[in-house]
Amino acid sequence: MLDPISIDYAALNLPSLIPMIIIVLGGLAILVIDLVKSDLSKSFYVMVSELFILVALGAAFGYTGSERGFFDALLVDGIAKLGEGIILIASALFIPLALTSKRFHEFSYPEFFALFLFMIAGFVFMVTSDNLILIFVGLETSSLSLYTLIAMHNRQKSFEAAIKYFTMGALAAGFFVFSILIFYALTGSVELHKIKEVLIAREFQPILGVVAGVVFMIAALGFKLSMVPFQTWVPDVYEGASAALAGYMSIVPKIAGFVVAMRMFEIFVHADIVWVQQILWIVAVVTMTATNIMALVQESVKRMLAYSSISHAGFAMSAILIGTTQANSALFLYWILFTFTNLGAFTMLWVSRHKKKGVWHSRYDHPYEKFSGMVKFMPVNAVIMGMFMLSLAGVPPFSLFWGKLYLMSSAINSGFIILALIMALNSAISVYYYLKLIVYMFLREPLEVDTTIYMKNTSTPLKTIIGFAAFMTLMATIFVSPLLHIITEYVKSSGF
Question: How does the average pLDDT of the chain come out, rounded?
C-alpha cells in the first residue's frame, strides 16, 4: 500500500499566493456573474475589476511573510513587489478607459474584463517567480489573454495584429522553452537561484551550452521586450490594437519582462561574464538607436509612439547591463515615470479616436495632420499633449527627464561612459520627432475645426486619467527623490 502524500504547509506558504489568487478569483467572479445575469453594464464590470485589482495591490504590499513561497518556486522580494506595484497600478488606471462616450463593442463583453484579470495574474506570476517553469506559465497566460483582447477590437487591422502577435509570441515561447531545457540539462534545476549556484561552481562551463541557453533566453525576452531585431511586430500590433490597449502594452508586459531579465542576467552580469555584457550592450544600444531613427520617418503619431516605446525599452535594458543597485533603482524609477507619461499620451489618442474619411490619412487613425492647428480650437488638449511629448523627449522639468538623468548617472558611475553618451545622443535625436507633433499642433493651420471629432470618445473617467497623468508628469520634481529612496530600499532588500 502506498504511503499517503504529505504536504509541508509551511513550505507551501499560501499567503505568498494571495495577490494572484485574488486576481484569478476576480476573473472567475465576472464569468459567474455573467452566467447569472447577462445584461449588466460595462460600468459594473469596471468597478468589479478595479475592486479586485486594488485588493490585490493591498495584499501585495501588505505581505510580510517569508520571501520564498509555493515550495520555493515563488520569490516575493522587493523586486517582485515593485513589479507587482507597477503592474497593478497601471492596470487600475487602464480599466476606466473602457468607460468611453463612444461605444466599442469589446467593452460590452464581460469576457473582456475576465481576460484582462487573467492577463494581470500571468504578469504577477512572472515577476514573483524564481522558477523558469512558473515564469513560462505566467508568460503564456498573459500572452494568450492579450492576443484575444487585441482581436476583440473587431477590426481587420485588429485581427491582423492579433495574428502577428500570436505568431511572434509562439516563436518567443519556443525560444524560452529551449532555454529552459538547456539550463536544466546543464544544472539539473529550473530554479534561478540553483542555476546560479551550479553555474558559478562550474565556472560557467561548458561554454557552448551556456552560450546557447543565454542566446535563446535573449531571443525569447527580446520578443517580449521588443528589442532589436525582434521588434518588427510592434508598430503593426500597436496600430491594429485600440489606442488604450496599445498604451497598456507599451508599459505592463515590458516591466514583467524586465524583472525576468533582471533575475536571469544578473547571474552573468554580477559574475563579470564579459561576452554576456557585450551582447546586452549591443542589444541595448542598437535598440535605442535604430528605433529612434525609424520613428523619425513615421506618418502616424501612434506608430511613432510605438517606435518610441521600443527606444525607451532600450534605455531601460541598459540598467540590466550595468547591474548595480543604483541602475536597477533607476530602471524602476524610469518605468514608473514612463508609465504615467505614456499612458497619458495614448489616452489622448484614445480620446480622439474618430476617423473622418476624406480629411486625414487614408490608412492611419492618428496621422500628424489630424493634430494640425489644434491649439487654435482645443488649446488645453494641445498643451497637455505637448507636455507629454516634451516629457518623453526628456526635457526638464518634466517627469521622464529625471528618469533619464538617474539612468545616465548610474551608467557614468559604473564606468559606462560611452553608453551614457549614446543615451544622451538618442535623447537628442528623439526630440525631433516629439517636436514634430508639437509643430503640427502649434504652428500649422487646422485641417478640421469640428471639435466634436476630437472629443468624440471622451468621458469624465478619461478626462480624470489624463488630468492625473498630466499632474504626475508636470509635478514629478516634488516626488522623484522620495520615490527613488523607496525604490532603492526595495531593490537593496532583494540583494540587487
Answer: 87
DSSP 385-428: HHHHHHHHHT-TTSHHHHHHHHHHHHHHHTT-HHHHHHHHHHHH
**Calculated CA dihedral for residues 98, 100, 102, 108, nearest 10 degrees:** 30
Contact predicate 318/299, CB 8 Å: no
Domain-located, residue 219: yes
3-state secondary structure at position 131: strand
Domain that holds residue 150: 9-493
pLDDT recorded at residue 1: 47
393-440 tens-digit pLDDT: 988 889 899 999 999 999 999 999 999 999 999 999 999 999 999 999
- 415 in a structural domain: yes
Length of the chain: 496
**Taking 90 as the threshold, does the pLDDT of residue 357 lie above it?**
no
CA distance 179 to 332: 26
Q: For the whole model, what pTM was predicted?
A: 0.92
On whether residue 39 sits in a domain, the answer given is: yes
**What is the grid cell recorded at 275?**
561576452
Distance between CA atoms of residues 435 and 77, nearest Å: 40
- Report yes or no on 3 lying in a domain: no
Total count of domains within the chain: 1
What 3-state DSSP class applies to 495?
coil
**C-alpha–C-alpha distance, residues 19 and 70, integer Å:** 13
451 falls in which pLDDT band (50, 70, 90)? Answer: low
